[in-house]
Amino acid sequence: xxxxxxxxxxxxxxxxxxxxxxxxxxxxxxxxxxxxxxxxxxxxxxxxxxxxxxxxxxxxxxxxxxxxxxxxxxxxxxxxxxxxxxxxxxxxxxxxxxxxxxxxxxxxxxxxxxxxxxxxxxxxxxxxxxxxxxxxxxxxxxxxxxxxxxxxxxxxxxxxxxxxxxxxxxxxxxxxxxxxxxxxxxxxxxxxxxxxxxxxxxxxxxxxxxxxxxxxxxxxxxxxxxxxxxxxxxxxxxxxxxxxxxxxxxxxxxxxxxxxxxxxxxxxxxxxxxxxxxxxxxxxxxxxxxxxxxxxxxxxxxxxxxxxxxxxxxxxxxxxxxxxxxxxxxxxxxxxxxxxxxxxxxxxxxxxxxxxxxxxxxxxxxxxxxxxxxxxxxxxxxxxxxxxxxxx
Length: 392
Known about the structure:
The protein has two domains: about 35-120, 2-Layer Sandwich (Phosphorylase Kinase, domain 1), CATH 3.30.200.20; about 125-325, Transferase(Phosphotransferase) domain 1 (Transferase(Phosphotransferase), domain 1, Orthogonal Bundle). Helix content is about 25%, strand content about 15%. It has helices at about 80-95, 140-160, 200, 215, 225-240, 255-265, 270-275, 280-290, 300-315, and strands spanning about 30, 35-45, 50-55, 65-70, 105-110, 115-120, 125, 170-175, 180-185. A hairpin with a 3-residue loop joins β5 and β6 (about 115-120). α2 runs antiparallel to α5 (about 225-240).
């Protein structure tokens, strides 16, 4: 029998028994799903709150993350059905793909609290921590990250799951065996809106403006190619240290609304403006950041293959020294240089994540099976909100 709690772990107020939720700060006091006891609030977002919890009946590896969805987010027609559908698909996908944060089979609705789902707890840093204004990451490191990102998102897209909010904060880098840059993609678009009216945009009820596709900005229906656009923005930022639309002639960052406008009406500054040595990747970024989804890469694997092809055509593999990372080598190899023979290649099947470490990698054959980008349901809630700001 669990002992009665006398103070709230969140706000520290006394005399909270016998409430299931703290009457002062709404911190969960009950055992969620009959076995998870929350002890710390991690973060608050536009669609809910993250809590740290412990499994009450496990002594080892018992820490979990629980996301509690705001009750008003679930009031929109069709959102509950979509929540249960997407949580099950994403949970199943996370069991098969190590690069997707694991979602356990504990999810549902708790009286007085609302809808929730349980995820694995990961110790690591977000990709944001690696990014500094005007300072590009080493090209080999960027390629290593994208080898994992592209195959992981392709696996999700094959199941009809669109992330909808690809950004550095949703990419976690953890230590896995001898790899310090093992990618975990978090916060898939469960119960998140796919579209918003311009009126909603002015109120800030949208995703992250810096990474939104033009169709998201205009409130149009989105599909998997919205994630490809966001990957293009991210690739540009990692390789240059700048957002392709983020600077005006005075060098100041654009406002949120100006960024949304730029996605729909402005052309990005060519990558080679900041990095002349990467001019061979200009066509790759131009296609990834095309205004029309029909002009972008069809799949994330196509994006990855174009990156490899562009890099190969420049004959610059042998110049990608590990010393450029300014930190410990991020893969274990006999030589401290990435060459065309040991660069991560496109996998033989779209569901297959790249194998790490990359010692003597297999020669992969591009998949022959194609698929049509999957449109997503328009009946959904509003996404999490983040103000546009320089990454740091």
